[in-house]
Design goal:
heterodimer, A: Arp2/3 complex 21 kDa subunit ARPC3, B: mini-chromosome maintenance (MCM) complex, domain 2, 2 domains, four-stranded antiparallel beta sheet, three-stranded antiparallel beta sheet, 2 helices, binds zinc ion
């Protein structure tokens, strides 16, 4: 692995962690334990700038380190399932969408991210009634997804310019 | 207008329609729910009790996963204290319709408001 790649992975992991920690101090979404998934912005930048393998590494590091920091099994499960599902979705969709449409990819990632978390909540409490929250979650995902997508797009533009 | 703008417009429209549909579904669900008569209490997916909303009271639900303090007041139910790590269940506030359940994920607790008048035992 090249030094530059290694450094990029370290910096992006750091960034993802910071976003994750800040996020965990925001008031919770209407749903038990759910996070809007703002650190998806880092996953998105990592996939397009470094590649899928590196993005996967960053995501895994972030989830492991975050669980050491916040240290609860529930939040670990939420970010594990939500994070990997969003990663898979965005990695696939980036083949179809052009690089200048990151925000669309991001919205789909966010929707899948939220559904993953809902699924975890559903399995943990063994009750399907949590799916009452699905409509609100879809709306939240479209808003936060657009936001993180545009943020990722802008970051990539800057990275490319300074290269 | 170029391809990119057209495609962006298409997705903005699509997502707006999805938002409207979701809001519609949400309000339909809300509209259908009236003031509930009782609540069903589930722990770990199992119905452990049914409690009337008509009488104000405070009680505890203790189980192997943790402890929650439940309050029924003015036909509304809320979780007022909990042993769980994130306390999200408390932040869900008061509930009085069957629209959305009160959930405490760490303690595997679900409180679902129901509309029908069942035989309610007041033993909790
Ligand atoms: Zn709780």
């Amino acid at each position: 692995m090249k030094l530059k790649t290694l450094t990029s992975i370290a910096i992006l992991t750091c960034l993802a962690l910071v976003i994750f920690v800040v996020e965990s101090h925001l008031p919770p979404l209407v749903i038990p334990g759910l996070k809007p998934g703002l650190s998806n912005v880092v996953t998105l930048v990592a996939i397009s700038y470094l590649g899928r393998k590196e993005a996967f590494t960053i995501l895994t590091l972030r989830i492991l380190l975050a669980s050491l920091l916040t240290g609860t099994f529930i939040s670990f499960m939420f970010s594990l399932v939500g994070g990997y599902l969003a990663f898979l979705t965005m990695a696939l969709l980036l083949n179809i969408f052009k690089e200048n449409q990151l925000w669309v990819v991001s919205v789909f990632g966010a929707i899948v991210h939220n559904f993953g978390q809902l699924l975890v909540a559903c399995v943990l409490v063994e009750n399907v009634s949590v799916f009452y929250y699905a409509p609100i979650l879809i709306i939240t995902a479209i808003i936060t997804g657009s936001f993180t997508g545009i943020a990722a797009q802008k970051s990539l533009d800057i990275i490319k310019k300074t290269k | 207008m170029n391809d990119k703008k057209l495609s962006n417009l298409f997705w903005i429209f699509t997502f707006l329609i999805i938002i409207l549909l979701s809001a519609f579904v949400y309000f339909i669900i809300q509209g259908k729910s009236q003031q509930g008569k009782a609540v069903e209490i589930y722990v770990n997916g199992e119905l452990i009790d049914t409690v009337s909303l008509e009488k104000d009271r405070t009680f505890f639900i203790n189980n192997e996963f943790g402890k929650n303090e439940i309050r029924i007041k003015n036909q509304k139910i809320s979780i007022i204290s909990a042993s769980c790590e994130n306390k999200v269940c408390i932040s869900q506030g008061e509930v009085h319709t069957s629209t959305a359940p009160l959930v405490c994920v760490p303690n595997k607790l679900v409180i679902q408001v129901i509309n029908d008048e069942t035989d309610v035992d007041l033993t909790v």
